[in-house]
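Researcher: Let's walk through a ligand-bound prediction step by step. First, I give you the protein sequence. Second, the SMILES string for zinc ion. Third, you return the three-dimensional complex as structure tokens. Ready?
Model: Ready.
Researcher: Here are steps one and two:
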Amino acid sequence: MGSGRAFVRRVAHPVVRNQARLASTAQGQAIKKFINHGDDTPGLSCKDYSKTLHLPRPPIPPYAKVTEIAEAYSERTTAALYRQQWEERKDKEFFILHDGPPYANGHLHIGHAVNKILKDIINRFQLLQGKRVHYSAGWDCHGLPIENKALVGLDPSASPTKIRQVSRHYASVSVNIQRREFEQMKILADFSDPWTYRTYDKEYEIRQLRVFQQMVKKGLIVRRYRPIWWSPASGTALAEGELVYDDSHKSKSVYVKFPIKREDMSPELRKGFDSTLLEDLNFLVWTTTPWTLPSNMAVAINEEIDYVIARGEHNIIIAADAVEPLPDKMGTSLGSDILGTKYHHYYQKPDAPPNPVFSARWVKADSGTGVVHCAPGHGADDYFTMTSAGLLEDHPLVSPVDGKGEYTEDILGHVPHSRLGGSLIGRSVQDKGNEEVLRQLREAGRSIHVKQIKHKYPYDWKTKTPVITRATSQWFASIADVKEKALKVLENVKFHPEAGRARLESFIRERSEWCISRQRNWGVPIPALHDIATDEAYLSAESLDHIIPVLEKHGIDYWWEGPVEDFIPPHLQGKNLRKGTDTMDVWFDSGSSWSLLGNLHGEKQEGGPRISDVCLEGSDQHRGWFQSLLLTRIIAAAEGEETAPYKTVITHGFVLDEHGRKMSKSDGNVISPLAVINGTEQKSKLPVYGADVLRLWTASADYTDDMAIGQNILKQSAESYRKLRNSARFMLGVLAIPNKGPVDQLQSTKPGMGLIERWIMDRLYQTERTCREAYERYQFHRVVHALTDFSTISLSAQYFSFRKDAIYCDAQDQTRAAIVTVMKNLLHVYKGLLAPILPLVAEEIHEAEQKIIRASQVSRAEELTLEKRLNKESVFMQPWPVVDSAWEDTEARETMEILLAIRSSVLGLLEKARAGKGLGSSDEAVVYLADASSGAAPHHVFQLLQTHEPLLSTVFGTSYAWTTSQIPNNTDQNAWEFTDNIEISQCPLTITVRGSPKTKCPRCWKWTKPSKDALCERCTKALM
Ligand SMILES: [Zn+2]
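Model: Step three, the predicted complex:
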């Protein structure tokens, strides 16, 4: 049956569908009817002639069988391919993409998929550029979320070793889950253990300790006493990420007076006010944490706002616009006049020096009284501002609160007499201790007003109890001295998007020290030894020289399990020591991962670790990994050899739902990457899309901003995927026809080639160049855009539709061979352009293409061996299909632009004929183009049309198209006619479309047949 061909001639899309499918559609039935009854040519029927056509034989099914494809091509496009290129390309240039490790906790979400797929597109593009790609996927395995999960099932008295054991198990289970899930995204990587890394691997931990040792050696690791978030309920320090905020926390707030002696007033203050106002003068502070008042070390004002003295029982200084209005505000003075003034507070010893006043821009008139109580031992903001103001250099922090949140005996060292301190010791600062402070202040007449307020306050996310801030001894990496070097090396780093540079720089500038110690069990130990009596810490390059080999021999757990004696280096022998219990901040774990690049899959690198060509993570990592990777690298580098760990930093946004909302379980709008690949239970919700559709969605979104995903968006991606694949399928179908003639390579050189072939080769050249540049610039949505345009417009709607007639019906001569050859080149380049984004479909096309090419070259006997060999040849081991610039063809492009513009008008007229005159196929029509310019000689655009007259009917899809100075009269009374006047490149044209004066050829269906008894001239020749 030849109905397949009939279908092709009627539908816009070039794909030949199979008989069964055709018969099942209404359109198919109509076509069959038309074939059987619509023509009565004697001799051969349509059916018989159709056998003489060269119809496409697509070797791949019309709809991708995604599950089968994934099974068939996975290995050769992922793990095996990765290992193969690593082995075979030893002499090739490296491309290193260092993987920022995801946290090993639970299943993957769509953000993980975006991250890995974007990385993969880059790697695959580089592989096609002939590079040797290094990509070792990693996992971040230590830290609190995992430890907390482990603790859930453990007895509260569980030993550190037991906690570590359970944590490790939990992390390894997560690693395995994520490994299997990443594999389904068809990433160019071997996800098995030897080819990947985990921060709990012993080798990793030892390497990390060596990096740490370098930092210790340079004196950059210091122990400091500093305020941190603390949960009295959990008895642990907390990181910012471990806090949740309660908007309706209740606190008792209090207004407290800090008296100012006359000799402590600044000269400006003394001069600016009447001396009666200066009698009994006080600062009035307002605080929501009265319990921190004994630790007050300064007050902050803002030198740029106005302050007044309010007269009452006592005179008090407050901001002129303070929230609480007070009567009798007298005089105004700029904050700067107050600077230099000092004061005393209730909890100071009488002989203690007065406390300073300093200016901070964050102080606002409407925040309390505009005079802010600062207790740097109980507030990170206070601590940082006072540190920057140089106020803490000679003054140790006051923080007399223990891990249970109770006042300690230390308070006696600060307060004026033991009775005052004694009634606070052992009392909780969140409860009785706070009440006692309020009572003492009230009794002493120091407080003015107490009121309960509701405000936002941090809670321990785990115990859901309020936290406090207290100072503890922690290990810090000192950043101050390396900051400038870090900023300097960033000058040579490229950022995409460029805004990332300023972000990363600002995070580095803001940081002066990095607290690297945590009071946790599940992590890499900070192997310090402490004097049991004094708690003095010993940590030096020398002590680590002794300790690290012990851990290397026995494993990291030995720090918790082994006797302290085993860790005491010779120079500390005889001291009474204990092992430190701090572990390292997990940002130090993942941050030191650049050190992996000193050993690429077992190949040691001369001259130290390499630099990653690209690092790509979510935009939140400017604050996190990009920073910790850079800082550890700079800190550990030898003097003068500081380099950034990356050459290019790429960041991506977050994934939102179709309405721009954050995904959350409670909103029910979460889309998991695995659901996109494998479908969901309710088939109507998400069908089985396969990895390529997920990847196409990822590539088509502009990832520099937030991305949207949802059922409709995925449906569009699936449709684009189908179209992209179908263009390849059509070309494969053409190549699979037993074509005669030179189709191995482009035999026809450009000058001998027709306009249409020159034009499509120019389009291919432009598309390849656009895609290559966009891949190089990491703008994958531009690749998708260029490829989709090329596939759906240039190929499907234009080139295929122009050339189907010649391919199906022409004799197998040189002209037709040239078309097939061009088609072959189009396919070859096209699959390469698709490959980084759609590896499975590219592999499917590649295999089908190779089979066709080889089948034409080898005997049947060789086919089996060939089959085996073919299975090993991935499309990614081919070179990138550069289109030679010789194919750039401005002339062909400009000429075709004119022809395509006229075509639009012709198609418009044909539509009118369809609607008004029952025109079926455009083959029934002919076109006249007349020069409507008034010049004596034909317009040069018209001359161009005359030159290309033989091609016009091909472009218009009509049986004939003529150029003429005057359109001939319509002599056939029954024939219809439609006319349009247009102007193309300043050339006025009259276009007339008429029914063909000839009849329909039963073989090619063009209305070019002169008489009833014959085929058309072209078909006659084709059958000779
Ligand atoms: Zn014909």
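Researcher: And what stands out?
Model: Residues 780-809 form the longest helix (30 residues). Residues 1-43 have pLDDT under 50 and may be disordered.
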